[in-house]
Amino acid sequence: MAPLARVLRYTISADAKRWRARLDHLATPASNVLYGDIVKGLSLPNACIERAYACHVLNMLIPKEVEKALAETFRLLQSGGVFRCVVPNVASVIERYQSSGDPLRCFQLVNALPRYGNKPTAHFDARGLRFCLENAGFHVRSAQFGDADDRLFSLVEEPGPWDPSWTIGFHCHKP
Prior knowledge:
Layout: E1 7-9, H1 13-24, E2 33-34, E3 49-55, H2 63-76, E4 77-88, H3 90-99, H4 105-112, H5 126-135, E5 139-143, H6 151-156, E6 167-173
């Protein structure tokens, strides 16, 4: 039997090729990186992953898919495993909308909300995402770019997607 994967990095299909190329060139051997559809579920045993990472992915899913993705992530993580995620913060979009004096701001709001094609995707603020993560069973703390103790996360995280002016991130621990 092949060794169990240590890292799960999930993406949306349009992003997968770029990230797969990036991960294959990291210090982590490619055999330790796994790719798959987290919503459909991966045919892997329970508790076989040490780390998982989702960058601007959960917000591309419809709400019921978010629940499935988090449940599958929790199932795959070993006890003590870590899941880090970052998404656009819908609260920052709403704040900009409310403070705008532009009479056509309603059009700006529609264009500013994250979306993926024609799908009605999930929009998160910190309270909502924290609730979803805790409901999945994780112990959760707010996270910022570069604050993970594990150096493997520093290999895949980039500062732009973690910009606190428009995103929220969480560091989740499976008890």
